[in-house]
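User: quick one, fold this
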Amino acid sequence: MREDPRTTPVSVTGHPPPMEGTDMDVDAELMQKFSCMGTTDKDVLISEFQRLLGFQLNPAGCAFFLDMTNWNLQAAIGAYYDFESPNVNTPSMSFVEDVTIGEGESVPPDTPFTKTWRIQNTGAESWPPGVSLKYIGGDQFGHVNTVMVKSLDPQEISDVSVQMRSPTAPGMYQGQWRMCTATGLFYGDVIWVILSVEVGGLLGVTQQLSSFETEFNTQPQRNVQGDFNPFASPQKNKH
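Assistant:
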């Protein structure tokens, strides 16, 4: 008797995948959806696997587990959780504050600007070498999708910046970024770019003027106490 393809997961090779030893309770409705699709599109499976794991793995890491399990989504998820030992210490990162593009700041359309976040290693161990900040979703604001970040010591705070360009149409936009290890493991808070694009917005212009003045040593001396940042959010400057 031939099995109903609507209820049998099908791998890329067309054969039912080996499911012995998999003890994961994965959403049956989701698995049936993929069975009905009979998909052999690896990109679709990678994307869905990544989404189900909450972006804990990059596409290359997802492809590794899917390939190891004959491109069966349910088996790949089981393999991933079997591989992830609870004794492995995942790096920790917490978002501290927006340094630029804070509340009340806007950027003109189609204008380059620098987005800077302040982040902290809130764990008990230093970050491994080769960590980076990666774009994971929403609006990207330009072509940069990865920036390298120095490995922070426990409780160390640092700023990380990305060069971006505002969209051509006025409006509110948002994108998400997240820290990632060299092995493809995402960790820490998801950090956001929430951008107001307005005709007459000044932030991009003032950043360009600041860079120009600094380069040619023409920036006037400010008689201001503390770490005043003219491009910080209003809340930070109040402090």
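User: anything notable?
Assistant: Confidence is low (pLDDT under 50) at residues 1-26, 217-232, 234-239.
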